[in-house]
Amino acid sequence: MSYLILVRHGQSIWNLEKKFTGWVDVDLTENGKLEAKKAGNLIKYKNINIDNYYSSFQLRAKNTLKLIKEILEDTTTSKEAWQLNERHYGALTGLNKDEMKIKLGEEKVHQFRRSWDLRPDPLDKNNPYHPINIAAYKEIPINKIPDTESLKDTYERVLEFYKQEIENKISKNNILISAHGNSIRALCKYLFKLDKNQISKLEIPTGNPLLVQFDLNN
Fold first, then answer.
1. Are 49 and 174 a contacting pair, CB within 8 Å?
2. What share of the chain is helix, strand, coil (3-state, %, to 5)?
3. For this structure, is 9 an active site residue?
4. Phi, psi angles (nearest 5°) of residue 82
5. 80 classed as catalytic
6. Out of 9, 88, 130, 180, which one is annotated catalytic?
7. Are 202 and 194 in contact (CB under 8 A)?
8. In Å, what is the CA distance from 184 to each residue of 114, 124, 127?
9. Which of 80, 86, 88, 180 is catalytic?
10. Are 98 and 109 contacting, i.e. CB atoms less than 8 angstroms apart?
């Protein structure tokens, strides 16, 4: 029996400000740090030894994982993967969600946030929030950096990484992934065989570990 633990990062600065964050590399709030520590204590209580740690390239996920590992007193090296990054929200990046609801209507904003294959307009490459202008992503091949994404796009890149890097380790290892609402939603779609309607309704709370148990005898 083995375990996969999925943790959405603790509350970020832009979560608090209700902004579309996507690939913008913002850090945790003080409350987000507390959420990460709480996640660490919940995992510690389960007494599960983690063999492999993964996070996205993004500061909020990396620092969540750092705080969890401090609670676990574990110095195991973790791997960072851009494929686990949050969904890119295109031209919505940096905009306030409540203001966009007033401007576009709640239904349209809900479609942008939860629909399967609808992409927002692309973000201008000259925008400082575009990933090509963010130092954290300088190692990513430029042809892999999106201007905008749908949940389907996010699902495809997350799943490709999961199948190549993680799936074959599950049989012998306990694995923890610190990532984001939409990258974890993508993994849940695959792991729990959710359809497009089910995945659109799935909420992933910040700092609350999801424990997936694999019984490899069945």
1. yes
2. 45, 15, 40
3. yes
4. -65, -25
5. no
6. 9
7. yes
8. 13, 27, 27
9. 86
10. no
